[in-house]
Design goal:
The complex is a heterodimer. By secondary structure, chain A is mainly alpha-helical. Chain A has one domain. Chain A contains five helices and two strands. Chain A is globular. The termini of chain A are far apart. The mean pLDDT of chain A is about 90. Chain B is of the alpha/beta class. Chain B has a five-stranded parallel beta sheet with strand order 5-2-1-9-20, with helices on one face. In chain B, a hairpin with a 4-residue loop joins strand 6 and strand 7. Chain B starts with a strand and ends in a 21-residue tail after the last helix. In chain B, about 45% of the residues are buried. Classes of the chains: A mainly alpha, B alpha/beta.
Amino acid sequence: MEKVIAGKTIAVNEEGYLTDFKQWDKSIADELAAEAEISLSPRHWEVLSYLQTEYKNEVPLSIRKIGKSGVVDIKEFYQLFPKAPLKTATKIAGIPKPASCI
Amino acid sequence: MKQLVILGAGTAGTMMANHLSHELKKADWKISIIDEREEHHYQPGYLFLPFDIYTPEDIIKSIDEFIPKQANLIKGKIDRVVPAENKVKMADGRELNYDILIVATGAKIAPEETEGMKGTEWHKSVFDFYTFEGSLALRNKLRNWEGGKLVVHITEMPIKCPVAPLEFAFLADSFFKHKHMRDKVEITYVTPLSGAFTKPKATEALEHLLEEKHIKIESDFAIEHVDNEKKEIVDYGGRSIPFDILVTVPTNKGDEVMERSGMGDDLNYVPTHKATLQSKEYANVFVLGDASNIPASKAGSVAHFEAEILTENILRYIKGEPLKEEFDGHANCFIETGNGKALLIDFNYTHEPVEGSFPFPGIGPLKLLKESRMNHMGKLAFRWIYWNVLLKGTHIPFVSATMSESGKKYN
């Protein structure tokens, strides 16, 4: 599937997650954040960049890991990305939705 | 004489002891299996005990009964493994050297990971059904309960048998219907996932069943604490859900012995190659069952399929041959849906559960992802198969260790 985000045609899956991280840039993050009614502050960017680094290092992401990362605690993670923070934050970061272990 | 040591005499460890005692020459290899417990529990039975479908006698046998004579069963507590020295240290000071180590120490609940979970209401109105004690306490509570809010809850993934909490909700619906008090009970299913299950097609089928049975679903709920006074669970976003009875699946963790040995990840699961079942760090250490971190279900059927492949890989390792990268994450689970029916799902790392027939393509007799009485009979028959076939390491006819794609409806 394709979607126009911030004036660019981007490949996404049916849930709206980017399928090619190379297409991600900050303007895309801003627009995806706006869709989730979030305006990105410097704290948001710190968390997004941490998630992207973990993704590049192939570390599976979970709420528990993020809580222990030292970057953000779970309470603040929820304040930054309300409701389902991991799903929202990974979408904005342009990385796949974490596959919760079955 | 070489030494092969198995840690844990649960489902996975017992199956490996049986497989390997057939395959390894007695003159060359000594097999030891270590466990501190006296009893072997049929863990799927914990689901049925609260509803008086099974009795304690149905699910408990002695560990000794299932360990082959050729293997040396050591009863005692393991202090730690020293993988750099190929050594297992026991709490009583004994030491065992090994040439090959098989880790089958399983997973268990850790309610202490969530604030307030193991509080004043523990086993009074807050229950688990992943231990014998929890399941029995819940049975006693349900026998006289007059109704109210029943909340079935998953703390975080991964958990053993990820479909068990759903089955619990379905069986509760059926249980209260039979007691003619379903109208007095409100059942809510609370999950950290965004739907009823982790795979899309099965989620669709299962959510349909929840709706049909008037079970409310609350998704994306990441619990922060249990409030014992107000009797509610509260998530990090501030959402709270009240309960009269909370049936929770606490955080699951690998055994502390893996933490003490420095062999586990943040949940004490041992990093393991998902296709060969060899430890990622130590070539002579192999891991199967719930103890590993591979992205497969933590379920007895998975351990059974793993055991067949791991047995072959251990023989290859002994001969110095390359290991077979064959394990595909195959899982096969019955899902009790209440009223004498069940679903069956069959899936692996890459293929989600879909509709079809099993084990004979196009024939069945079991139906995949559809409710049927035959599936329920299969689930009940499974207890006999577990004690008499599975633990002994006997191959189950027509069911292969790797998943078959025939007879299934993939798009």
